[in-house]
Design goal:
heterodimer; A: 486 residues; mainly alpha; Helix Hairpins; four-stranded mixed β-sheet; 16 helices; B: 292 residues; alpha/beta; Rossmann fold; 2 domains; six-stranded mixed β-sheet; 10 strands
Chain lengths: 486, 292
Amino acid sequence: MIFSSILTLVEKDLKLFFRSRISAVFILILPLLIVILAGYGFSSDKLSGVNVAVYSDSYSEISENIISSFEENNFSSRKYSSLDECIEAVKISNAQICVLFPKDLTSEGSAENVIFYVDYSRTNFVDTLINLVDNKVSSESSNLGTALVQTLIDNLNSVKTSLEIEREKLNLASGQINDLKNSFSLIENPVEDLDNLISDLKNYEDSSLIDSEISHLEDLSSEISTSFDSLVNVNSQSNSIKAELDSVISNLNSLIISLNSLNVGNAEDIVSPIEISLESVDGSNSKREYIFPIVFSLISLFGAILISSTLVLKNKKTLAYFRNFVTPTRDFTFIFSIYLTCLVILLIQFILVFMGVYFIFDMNFFVLPFETSIIFILGWSVFIFVGTFLGYMLRSEESIIFSSVLVASFLMFFSDLILPLENISEELFKIASYNPLVVMQSALKRIYLFELGFEEIWVGLVVLGCFVFIFGTLSYFVRKATKRNL
Amino acid sequence: MNDALIEFKGVTKIFGKNKVLDSIDLKIPENKITGIIGASGEGKSTILKMIVSFYKVTKGDIFYLGRNVLDDLKNIKKNFGIAIEDGSFYEDLTVKENFLHFGKLYHVPRKILKKRVEGMVHFVGLENAGNVLAKNLSMGMKKRLDLACSLIHKPKVLILDEPTADLDPLLRRQFLHLIKKINAHGTTIVLTTQLMSEVEEVCDKIAILYNEKIVEQGEPVKIKKKYNAKTMDKVFEKIFSNKRRKTYQESKEKKTKFILKNSFNKKVKDPWEILDEKIELNKKDGKYANDF
């Protein structure tokens, strides 16, 4: 009985919906158009149409290089004749950022900083822009630093090479001294042998001749002895030279070891010792991939709330309201029929959307079909019951439509869409994390982008289920309380 | 013995601070046509809507077959058909779609409903407009569509709020004929109207509503005899003039009592007297010398 009444009401509502062909087509096709536009619009990972206003009292080669590097990112830059004009350009949206370069920026740097002037009212865009422009300036600054450090490294390397050559020379000298010392050790003192010869000669009988020879030999011995003493002296001096030479060589070795231990041949290793590179966790670079869960959640939010609230409104304002009231139909039947009608309309909308996404962008959103369907149905159900609740609670058309848009906007504002949720206070963050839009969106992301299953989304499902129950019950009681007060 | 199918006992209805009905006692007999008459804004439609509990009574009770309507809503909704003055149907559905929709909501079996829709189209003379959108029908046709919608489940009681309002004399005649025909099938009819001639023509019983109360109820012949009047119009005039006179006298008495009460407390001056006194004073002061 109840089911037959529900079907009757759904059939009637759908008949009335499709009877107005233009509005039906509009409602069904519009989400598809939004998705197609979003798909094409966010297919790139680059920013486009960014105008950079620049100003400097005097442009140097380096600041010119930075300005020309903006062009690489499809940025267009324009020089302004004063800082005020530069800032004004941001205010009137002729440029998104004004960059002030210090006068005559050189490779040795400047006492002043490069200053960015941005319009912080464009909160979601400004951080990205600053990041990109800052990257360009930092990159140029880094290039300069790299060149300077490279020169330093090259000089150090050349010093190291010279030191090594000198060390080799010293080693050679040290070796020669050693050889000398060794040769000296082989020399025996001939004076003793000479003295023995002289005493033997003294024992001979022909002494006159011998005496003259002896005297000659003694002179010779005395000369040799003096020379040998000199040699001993040289030997001891060469020892101290050798010791000093060894000490120099040892110091040179330590220096060379220290230079080798630097182990830096590339200036970039000093200028940017830690390189950062960003990689997407799902391996995708196109923003389209990320934008679709958001767009789908938004269409669900606005579509479901507005369709359900206006459907309730139409049912309340129709001439037939009174006759429906006097038929033996329960309040639950009316609410559930509105819920089912909205669900059918949303289903048609999204079938068109998914087909469009599949055929135009070659993207299959149903990677995990069961989980995706459950999330969509629960999300739609929450928003449908929110709209139903508003529709029954308020009387006038204006207040119903206005409050529906307001509630949808409120949910959108406290999601990640305008400002990252992490920007708001901790207490509000906790509440906002239960925002059905946030829950639906994050569950869809997990399913679609990361292919995570039920284990990772069950909390979201429970939260959405609770919302369905709360708003479904509220709708029932509000209808019961207000059905006689039109 | 209680011969009333529907009975109002001390029913009062207040909307906010506005009292519309005050302690109404009314009996509606079975299988008869009962007319509730009264001037515009007297609360006739409110009475009808209270029977089907669209409005809840503020005080008192309404009984159907001896049971309070609020305790027997399911039965009331099943056995009652109601057509209100503005009509109650979907303007963007065709005549037949409206019949089918409400027939299904009244749980008329599908096979029977199909036949009944065809029969109903003929019964109310809309055979050529079965597939026309309701919004494109003439006023008379809309009235017939609305009547048919309230008959689709064959109710035991048919409630009609100003059924002939906005209809030309010919259509009105046709409509009254239709009402008689429905009653002849054993359906109890309760209707409201402002037209006395209608009452005389179709009603077996009438209740006259005036100043929040039922001031007269019974068979039209007996009422005419009571007031020694030839037509219901005359009865109405007499009731209203008597009531007006009574009300006027009552209010005059109240006013006199009020003035007397005030005069005991404080001497109330005539405004003209006060003005004369002021003029005299000003004359003495030399003001308005040339004005008077």
